[in-house]
Structure formats: structure tokens, C-alpha cells
Amino acid sequence: MFKGILIDKDDSGYRATLQEINDDQLPEGDVTVRVAYSTLNFKDGLAITGSSPVVRKFPMVPGIDLAGTVEVSGHPDYKVGDQVLLNGWGVGEGHWGGLAQKARLNGDWLIPLPKAFTAAQAMAIGTAGYTAMLSILALEHNGVNPGQGEVLVTGANGGVGSFAIALLSKLGYSVVASTGRTSEHEYLKQLGASEIIDRATLSEPGKPLAKERWAAVIDSVGSHTLANACASTRANGTVAACGLAQGMDFPASVAPFILRGVTLAGINSVTQPKAKRILAWNRLTKDLDFALLPLISHEIGLSEAIDAAQRLLAGQLRGRVVVDVNR
């Protein structure tokens, strides 16, 4: 038996509860991992609360991230005792995820835990930091460099935004952070933001084209914010779109793309090939200031995760929530 959060839906409603789970309830997979740490992401918050139809089958263990130790392996790349991590691949949505003390998974979804990180540090980074790194790789692929001008980061207080600011700043970029929480200005400055703007300047309907400002953008918000970011991106700039905190809609025009040559780069963190995942995590070992991890993240126990999910969706939690599944 092991502890885990189990989401179920039946005639009595939708519910997420912490309970004892039997090993034989684990889904199919060729690697069983003794989980050390997981995380609480925006998607996990949606799954636990039922605020959005994220979960595709029931019962479901949420948790799109996990790090731990291989306990059983039928996969050629992994042996008992190996330290591994996982981001994405639909775990926590269509396959049982990391918010439990055990997970049985397809070994192809795993990558080795980089030796530079502890399991707790890897989960402090999690999908958020990994997605921020994928976004930076997309900017670099399109030739963006620090000498070209300011980079806008939207949703700056969230996990992706926090890591995007920290990484861009360390790489020498001038970063402008967009947030609606004035109380967090000092936090964003500590991460490396050179300027902070009110998200209200981007979140309302805007013009098809606005004054050129941004050399590049990392956007985790979507909707009007993404449309306005594109409208004010400089000629031949790149906008990396990786989230939908404001909405899934994109009320924009083609003007920035056909009149200024702006590139809109979609960032899919869920099904990236293994080589790209390893590249992103290796870059994180070099380009992230580890000293910022305690500032960006805080740790809770598995028993606290259900209550924390509500606060996460309400925008009351800063940065990353790391979950120690063994307390």
C-alpha cells in the first residue's frame, strides 16, 4: 500500500481525496518509480478541483511532474536504483501521475535525473522551469540575442514566468515582467527583472499593431495578453507561447506576422522527444542560478496539496509548489 491523491467521478460527484492505494491498482508500465517529490502545477490545480475537464479517465492520480528512484524496471535504459524524472506525457490526465508515493510508467517517458540536481531541486524547477527553457531555446533558434532589446515575460509571478525571468537575466537579457500583483515587485526584481509593468496594459482588447517594443516575448497567459504582445513585438522578433492562464482564445490579427515578420513559436512541453528534454535539462544545469530556487519555490506535504490547489488557481501562490509525497 502507498499514499496518493485519487480523483474520482461518479453519480455522487467529482472529488479528490488522499487515500491508501494498493500496488495492484497501479496502471500498466514497464518502470515503477518510488516517488520522492512531485509538484503542484496550474494543470494539477484544474485536475484536483475539477475546474476544467483536464482528467480524461477515472480514477486518476494527478501530478504532471515527478522525481524519484526506479524500484522495478523492464526497460533497457533503466535499472533498479536509478534516479529519474518525468514531465508531461499526459500523466496526471490520462495516466496516473506523481502526486503519490509510487508511479508505474512507460520508461520512454523518463529521463535520467541530472547529477547537478537533487530530486527536490528538479521538482522546484519541474515543468515550469523546463517549459521556460524550451521557450528560450525557441528564441535562440530564431536568432534572438541579448543585444536586440527587451524581452517581455507575461504571467511573471507564475512558475514559468519566474524561471523565464531568472534564466533570461542570467543569459544577459533585459527583462520586462508583466504582473497584476504590485506586492511582488521586489520578488521579480530579485529574479532579474529590469522593469515591471501592470498586466492591465496587455490584458484588454488592443489594436492589430502597436508601437514596436519587444525583441522577444515569453507568454504563459494567452488570450488578449498574447495578442497585444504580438502587436508590440519588433520586426522579425519571436513570441514563444506556452500557456493559457488568461484563456485559450487568441483574439489577434495577422498584421504582426505579415507586416513585421513576427514569429509565433508554440511551446509544447508535453510530448517533446527525449533528446530535446535532455538538452533543456542540461541547459538548466548551466543557465539557472540554483540560489534562486528557495525564492521561486516552497515545499508542502502530500496532505496539503488538495487545499493548495484552490489557492493556486486563485492566484494566491507565488512561483512553484514542490510536494514531498512522503509527508
UniProtKB/TrEMBL annotation:
InterPro entries according to UniProt: Acrylyl-CoA_reductase_AcuI, ADH-like_C, ADH-like_N, ER, GroES-like_sf, NAD(P)-bd_dom_sf, Zn-ADH-like_protein
Enoyl reductase (ER) domain mapped to chain residues: 9-323
Gene3D superfamilies: Medium-chain alcohol dehydrogenases, catalytic domain, NAD(P)-binding Rossmann-like Domain
SUPFAM superfamilies in UniProt: GroES-like, NAD(P)-binding Rossmann-fold domains
GO molecular function, one term: acryloyl-CoA reductase (NADPH) activity
Pfam families membership: ADH_N, ADH_zinc_N
Name of the protein in question: Oxidoreductase
Organism: Pseudomonas lini
